[in-house]
Amino acid sequence: MTVRKSPTIAFGLQVSAVALKAKAGFLTARDQLALVENMFAWADGDASARDAVRDFMALAKIDPAAAGRRLQDWLDGWSPETDSRRTEEVLAGIDAARPDWRARKDCGLE
Vertex 87, ends 82 and 88: CA angle to 5°? Predict the structure, then answer.
């Protein structure tokens, strides 16, 4: 089975992780560098993403928790693919795409 990899999802997950680390007080320079590198790799043509990362980097020097909140707020409105409110819908789609291995006779579960 081939899995489609989405740069939007990858960047959204990176943004979410960095925002949560900043809010929790565990943001490192490596996290910030990875965010910038991945923005160029996965969302280079997106002016909104570029602005959000630039603003985050500037504010993180002064108030990392506020920077994390602002970045997370931006992420919520950035892309329908990364909308955390769609979790159940996305999970249902993933389950539908996977074969139900538990129903196989050779697994010994039936």
Answer: 150
- The CB density around residue 68, as the number of other CB atoms within 10 Å, is 24
Sequence-distant (6+) residues with CB within 8 A of 20 are 68, 72
pLDDT per position as a tens digit, 53-110: 999 999 999 999 999 999 999 998 887 665 555 555 655 565 555 556 656 666 655 4
Given the structure tokens 């943004």, which residue do they identify?
Answer: 15
What secondary structure letter does DSSP report for 106?
Answer: G
Q: Exposure of 77 by Cβ count < 10 A (0-12 exposed, 13-18 middle, 19+ buried)?
A: exposed
The pTM score is 0.69
> Which residues, other chains included, contact 49 with Cβ-Cβ below 8 Å and sequence gap of 6+?
11, 39, 43, 78
The amino acid at residue 53 is: V
